[in-house]
Amino acid sequence: MAACLRAPVTGVGPLIGTLQRDLGLDAGTAGLLTTLPLLMFSAGSLFAPHLARRWGLTATIFAALVGIFCGVLLRSAGTVATLFAGTAVIGAGIALGNVLLPSLVKSDFPERVAQATSVSGVSMGTAGALVSVCMVPLALWFGWQGGLLAVGLLPLLALGVWCLRAQGMARAGSMSVAAVGPAPAEPSVGRIWRSAIAWQITLFLGFNSVMFYSMASWLPAILTDAGFTAVVAGSLHGEMQLASALPGLFLGPVVARFGDQRLMAAGMALLMTVALLGLLAYPALAVLWVALFGFGSSGCFLLAIMFMAFRTGSAGQAASLSGMAQFIGYLLAASGPALSGAMHEHWHSWQGPLLVGVGLTLLMATCGALAGRDRQIH
């Protein structure tokens, strides 16, 4: 399921130029293709906890996977209208999966939250990087419609696995209300929005989302302005996504040993600070700075997902916290690329946006240190 939460979106970036040429899209309209999923992530986050309480985790995630698959089919139909409609449907499906992943981990792996979250992170990063690398060759062989359609294999595979999961639970007689049916309302869920810990986790995730999606949008332009060729800039953009898969390989076992994650959360955010300062001061070492940024950002994302399980007392409460954090986080993220571009146009330089990014990552480190304390929302 986690492999379906990034790849359908990251696969569009390499084809933006082709889509503009074949469909006659201007720059602003093409930019909306990268912003629309983030807006859908944010809006969908509000409804995911309610749907999970009403239908249960298994049924809601199944519906999310069906939505992603249908969105991929619609997006590949070949017109501007279906391109945007399919992108919106994909975004809505991914929004449900994003929010319910911490709840699923809390429900199915209560004693192995860190390990299960890390495996999910590796799956997200690897699938996203693989699709980004393969999309252009697939488009050359089968056209851009065929390239985008190929991403549908991921949700199709996940749907097959999810059907087996539901059948296995039915045979075991464990189709309980908590697992797959409507879940009872919890008195503490309504207090999530008034919890200081919830806001610390929300801002930690939100600032990270702003930085990641801003860099995902503008890193090639930053590097070409620094003197790199377009080919090298594109390769470094792919490197950032590959580096994002690495924290999941070791973060789970390390986090599982500690109840307190303050130093780890602050340290991952500060890696992003160092990376941005490096791009400002020594852009020639971009291969190092880009890897550090991708590594730190992915580490922060995985820790934020873990916090949603660590700091809550039940799967329902984890879903509510995840919905709050991702609604605000992706709303902030949707504004990041546009604001970064506006600052670049105003100052005619990337120094301003990068310095603002340094400030945001320092705020992230503070929020991470607070969210990483060993305590729960009551």
UniProtKB/TrEMBL annotation:
Transmembrane intervals: 27-48, 55-74, 80-101, 122-142, 148-166, 197-216, 228-251, 263-282, 288-309, 321-342, 354-372
SUPFAM superfamilies on file: MFS general substrate transporter
A Pfam family the protein falls into: MFS_1
Sections of the chain in a coiled coil: none
Domain of life: Bacteria
Keywords, sorted A to Z: Membrane, Transmembrane, Transmembrane helix
Residue ranges constituting the Major facilitator superfamily (MFS) profile domain according to the UniProt record: 1-376
Protein name per the record: MFS transporter
Species this protein is from: Microbulbifer elongatus
